[in-house]
Amino acid sequence: MKDATAIVGVGQTEFAKAIDQSELTLAVRAIKGALDDAGLSASDVDGLSSFTMEPNIEVEVARNLGMENVTWFSQVGYGGGAACAVVGQAAMAVATGQCQVAVAWRARKRGARTSRPWAQVAQRIEGPAQWSRPFGLLRPVDEIAVLTRRYIHDHGATRDHLCNVAMAFRSHANRNPNALMHDKPMTRDDYFASRMISEPLCLFDNCLETDGALAVVVTGTDRAADTPHPGVLVHAYAQGLNAQHQTMTNFHGEDPLRGPAWAAADLLWRRADFTPADLDVAQIYDAFSPLILLSLEGYGIVERGEGGPFTDDGNLELGGALPTNTSGGGMSEAYVHGMNLVVEGVRQLRGTSTSQVDGARTCLVTSGEGVPTSALLLKAA
Amino acid sequence: METTRLLPDEDEHSAPFWEACREERLLIQRCDDCGRLRFPPRPMCPDCNSLEHSWVDAAGTGTIWSWVVVHPPVLPAYNAFAPYPVIVVELDEDPTLRMVGNVIAEPGAAINSVAPGDLAIGARVRVAFEDLEDVTLPRWVLDD
């Protein structure tokens, strides 16, 4: 399926802590925006790709937008692991002829307390969480903090490295008027003065609580020649589930710091015509800052244990070795389960990012490390 | 419900573990065919795919593999103790046998009874047990 499909439209709502519209309204606004961007109408859409956590089912999306017969629809699990997969599976469906034009989307009112999975727990904890939640490991940040402490111990990383990540993404958000953290500069002192959430992680190691929706339109590369914007090619795509994985509390395997990213990366790079050294820009899933260090290693951008030092010298910032999360990412633009990372990857390869990397031709987009995950390599046409 | 501590919902695979905790025993599954030890409990051995297993007593000793300090806001029942440490213990029997738990100053002490400054990766711990409602949870005390 290499380069057989292209992302021809992107759409999004505003991002805010609380938007006074339903998730369904947000979803159909984002999809309508993406279709307009692609110069297509709802009746052109015959494929729908979404998250199992998506609150808006295909039926509602299709009848609100007025779609005709839809011949392919699917959902991908594992929350933040799914954003690249919903696009990749849509590309597979187009490439195999199951549909001609597919829409992938995510709408979320994260700000609503009821949408936080960790706040929806019953008193009796079923399944794998029975081995962690009763002991007070309650929130995703607590689970990732466990891996972070061990990572710091094994590899000599420091909170300065995590601060580098937060600072880089904030600097990008301050160039992006749509980012929640636009106009909110942050200093190193601000980072180190912020309250601890789950030591060793502080407030600014965390993503944002965000309401909003994003959508992308995928179609065949031949059809992309006729769309208003040059199609961004889906060059390679992979999902990843590593041996003995346990979602979020991935503490039980031989090597818990070698997570799903490694599983996805192996196929991703085997399918690609280029290597990590050829990346112009990256959008790496950042629910928490340490996921950047793990993902840089998992996707082969640096060797094991070198994720921390790589964040030095502004390497993640515009003008650095690998500008990363150039819209601000989940930590400073919006946290919509990583769909904003896909959309920003498209903008970079169209040349329309607010933190544009000059002449960007290749972009890695990843989904969540710590859960069964997925990744995309996007390429300018 | 949020004012109540979270407790495990025992299922057919985990019930023998929790049942043994009530007798202050820490049990681990061992494959009857290849001998592999595994945790958390599950029906099939990932090495040989045997469905046959026995439960064996762990020594109840291990080392801290990692630890965090949880700060508010968390669920009300846990906010009362926050900030509190949570540890992951690597059992002496096998490095892949890792259990999330709480380190306490002595049996019966609260989950915030050990100062985070006393914790370190590699520190030795020994199991203790605490009854909560109809469940008994394993806890850990520093063992030096």
Give a verbal description of the structure.
The complex is a heterodimer of chains A (381) and B (144). Chain A has 381 residues and is α/β, with parallel strands linked by helices. Chain A has helices spanning 23-38, 58-65, 83-95, 140-155, 159-173, 188-193, 221-224, 260-271, 290-298, 307-310, 329-332, 339-350, and strands spanning 5-12, 47-51, 72-76, 101-109, 124-125, 196-199, 201-202, 211-220, 232-240, 281-283, 362-366, 373-380. In chain A, helix 8 (260-271) packs across helix 9 (290-298). Chain B is globular and about 45 Å long. Chain B starts with 6 loop residues before the first strand and ends with a strand. By secondary structure, chain B is mainly beta. Chain B folds into two domains: 9-58, no CATH class; 59-144, Beta Barrel (OB fold (Dihydrolipoamide Acetyltransferase, E2P)). Strand 5 (124-125) of chain A pairs parallel with strand 1 of chain B, so a sheet runs across the interface.
Descriptive keywords:
heterodimer; A: 381 residues; alpha/beta; nine-stranded mixed β-sheet; 12 helices; B: OB fold (Dihydrolipoamide Acetyltransferase, E2P); three-stranded antiparallel β-sheet; 2 helices; globular
Secondary structure layout plus pairing:
The complex is a heterodimer of chains A (381) and B (144).
Chain A: E1 5-12, H1 23-38, E2 47-51, H2 58-65, E3 72-76, H3 83-95, E4 101-109, E5 124-125, H4 140-155, H5 159-173, H6 188-193, E6 196-199, E7 201-202, E8 211-220, H7 221-224, E9 232-240, H8 260-271, E10 281-283, H9 290-298, H10 307-310, H11 329-332, H12 339-350, E11 362-366, E12 373-380
Parallel strand pairs in A: 2-3, 2-4, 10-11
Antiparallel strand pairs in A: 1-8, 1-9, 4-8, 6-7, 9-12, 11-12
Chain B: E1 7-8, H1 15-22, E2 27-31, E3 37-38, E4 53-57, E5 61-70, H2 76-79, E6 84-91, E7 98-101, E8 124-132, E9 135-142
Antiparallel strand pairs in B: 2-3, 2-4, 5-6, 5-8, 6-7, 8-9
